[in-house]
Every structure is written in structure tokens, then in C-alpha cells.
Amino acid sequence: MDEIKTLLKIMADLRDPEGGCPWDIKQSFKSIAAYTVEEAYEVADAIEREDMADLKNELGDLLFQVVFHSQMAEELNQFDFSDVVKEINDKLVRRHPHVFSDKKINNEAELYSEWEKHKKAERSNKVSASADQQPESILNGIATTLPALRWSEKIQKRAAHHGFDWENIEPVFDKLQEEIGELKAEIIVENNQERITDEMGDVFFASVNLSRHLGVNPEQALRDANQKFISRFEIVEQLLQKDGNEMEDCSIEKLEEYWRQAKKLAV
User: Fold this and answer.
1) What is the rounded distance in angstroms from the CA atom of residue 146 to the CA atom of residue 139?
2) Side-chain half-sphere of 256: how many Cα atoms within 13 Å?
3) Structurally, how many domains does the chain consist of?
């Protein structure tokens, strides 16, 4: 706790109008929001690389973002860091009655059901307290600023939990094929970029739905595919260099030959 107190003091000093850091002083919630997201991605990157030393460092950077937001809120008399900690403490206890009370949970399905009940009540309270007074929806509360794949997955999971879902995977494949067909039709018939973009979005959405039904994390699957492409592409570059060829001078057929070699070498 002494280290947390030190961090909070450092943050307060950085924001002190008398002698603080000019850059830190002029920041706002909006101006540092992008840094907060960036730090979360850097945490994920360290985990991906299994670099524990870097993970420790990046978690510190992410914690600093929480402290930064909390300090600015305290200056506005809204809340402070201890309020943030209390909020998450209360939420965790409230959402885990099977751990912190006498309530019994018999299986994972019951656990998920209880979890959703608590989250639904919290969402309802949040909507009631909102100045916007949004129409009530089971999709309320899903952050629209999430990466698109993750946002799509959360929307689908929320809807599925309330019965809006296919019971088996065959219609999911059919829907994906249907969306691909509609995309092809737009390209062939009208070639309207706005319509193509719309249909491409439907293909992505249907692909995420397929991932969900297969129990595959779409974000992780795409990250793995990206890394696989990078690894194979680098091998293609090495093969080209070995043969004294330039990529730009090769036909697509020749590059495909290199790609097939790379796939074999990368295994």
C-alpha cells in the first residue's frame, strides 16, 4: 500500500498547477483516453509474447492511467482512487455470492446465469441514472468503443443469452454463405462502394458468429492468422533473396510457388 500512496502522490504532484508538469496539467479525460487504450493493448502484447518482465512494466503503465483518470476526477470533486477501488471491490463481492456468501452454485451454467442477473441489474441501474434515459434494451451498456471484433462478439453473446441464437452450427454456416453471396452480388451487379462496405460488414459479423459457435476467440484467431502470415511472408522474402529475385519483378504465379514453399518450411 505504501507504493500505491507514493504513486498517488506522484500523480498529484504532476498535476499540481504550482510546479507540476505542464503536459500532465493540460490533459483531460478525452486527451488521455487514447493512451489508456494503447496501454491496454501493450499489456496484451506482452502477454502474447510471454514476456513477464515487460508485462510487469506494462501493467504499471496501465495502472498509471487509472490513477491519472482518478486524479482528474478528484480535482472535479467527482470521485477519487479509493472510490474506484471500493467500486470494484463491491462489484466483485456482489457478483460472486457463491464465494462471499452462503449461496450455493451447482454448475457453470448456474454460475453464468447468476452473473448475468447481477450484470442486468447493474445495467438497469446505470440506465436509470443516465441523463440520456435510453430506451431499455438488453444490449445497453456494451461499450461501442471496443475493437469491432470484440464489440460484435459481446453483442452476439448478450443476445444469445436471451435466446436470440441458433441451436446448432449449420444455420450459422448457411448465414455466412448467404452474406458472402450478397457481397458477390453487390460487386457484380452495382459495384457501389457503400453497399459493398455494408455487405462486407455483414460477412465479418457472420464470421464472428461462427467463431462464437465454435468456441473460438475471433480477436485471437485473427491475431494468430496475422502472425502466421508475417512468418510465412518473411520466409518468402528470404527465398527470393536466396534466388536473387525481387518480389516486384515476379509474377503472381511465381510468388504463389514461393508461398507454397514457405508454408512447408514454416510448419
Assistant:
1) 14
2) 3
3) 3
Rounded to two decimals, what is the model's pTM?
0.66
46-78 pLDDT, tens digit each:
998 899 999 999 999 999 999 999 999 999 999
The residue whose grid cell reads 506482452 is 46
Sequence-separated (6 or more) residues with CB below 8 Å from residue 70: 79, 80, 81, 83, 84
Q: What contacts 24+ positions apart, CB below 8 Å, involve 29-32? A: 29/69, 29/72, 32/65, 32/68, 32/69
Q: Is there a domain that residue 104 lies in? A: no
Contacts 24+ apart (CB under 8 A), 26-32: 27/68, 27/72, 28/72, 29/69, 29/72, 32/65, 32/68, 32/69
Q: Do 74 and 81 touch, CB atoms closer than 8 A?
A: yes
Structural domain for 20, as ranges:
2-95
